[in-house]
Amino acid sequence: MVIQGLAFYLFALMTVASGAMVITARNPVHSVLFLILAFFNSAALFLLMGAEFVAFILIIVYVGAVAVLFLFVVMMLDIDFARLREGFLNYLPIGALVGLILLVELLLVLGAWAILPESELRVTAPAPEAASGLTNTEALGNLIYTEYVYAFQVAGLVLLVAMIGAIVLTLRSRPVRRQRIADQVNRRPEDVLVVRKVDPGEGI
User: Fold this and answer.
1) Does the pTM exceed 0.70?
2) Is the dihedral of CA 90, 94, 97, 102 positive or negative?
3) For the chain, what is the domain count?
4) Helix axes 2-24, 28-49, angle to 10 degrees
5) Phi-psi label, residue 135: left if phi above 0, alpha if psi -120 to 50, beta otherwise
6) What SS3 string covers 73-107?
7) Of 14, 42, 63, 130, which has the most beta carbons under 10 Å away?
8) Cβ pair 17, 30 in contact under 8 A
9) How far apart are CA 46 and CA 41, in angstroms?
10) 111 in a domain, yes or no?
């Protein structure tokens, strides 16, 4: 238990530090790399909790797809971040007001938080799935595709609509110059050549 406690505090500290570096890093590439580090530490925390499926999904989906996509987009797009930061002070009062409102809401939620007396017994009690021989992944799959199958399908449709909307918003029609063999064959010298007489000492 001592090793698990030390590992929890180590991974939790690394996650918080990585999240802070994501915001405070000046280089956007470094921010994405710190984000990947935060995902790995969060996955380690899920492993300590016994949720191995969520941990592997966090690494495969977020680190393997989303964070790498962010990294490629940031590295390939030539974005002038210095120009983007020019109007930061103009929007600072509005951002501070929104942040203050969110902080007050979080404090109200934490102030009204109630802990059940039997919560400690529920945490230490073995899960019902463990007695039947089901793994964490099997139990989660049975729960998603039986009781929450409609919510799962709706979430898939929402992601599909979001993907189509992103494609439509970023799609730009660009004129493409095509080669016309007939026009090139039928071209005459007088259509492309101009013969001018230039006197000595004078330009065109």
Assistant:
1) no
2) negative
3) 2
4) 160
5) beta
6) HHHHCCCCHHHHCCCCCCCHHHHHHHHHHHHHHHH
7) 42
8) no
9) 9
10) no
Give the type of residue at 22: V
Identify the residue whose tokens are 């929007």. 91
Q: How far is residue 34's CA from residue 25's CA, in Å, rounded to a whole number?
A: 9
Query: Is residue 163 situated within a structural domain?
Result: yes
User: Is there a contact between 81 and 28 (Cβ–Cβ < 8 Å)?
Assistant: yes
| Residues 46/54, Cβ–Cβ less than 8 Å | yes
Q: Show the tokens assigned to 139.
A: 């139990």
- Domain with 54, as residue range(s), is 1-79
What are the pLDDT digits (tens) for 110-149? 887 777 676 666 655 555 555 566 777 788 888 888 888 9
φ/ψ of 102, rounded to 5, equals -65, -35
Q: What are phi and psi for residue 58, nearest 5 degrees?
A: -65, -40
The first and second tokens of residue 168, run together, are 């439509």
- Amino acid identity at 166: A
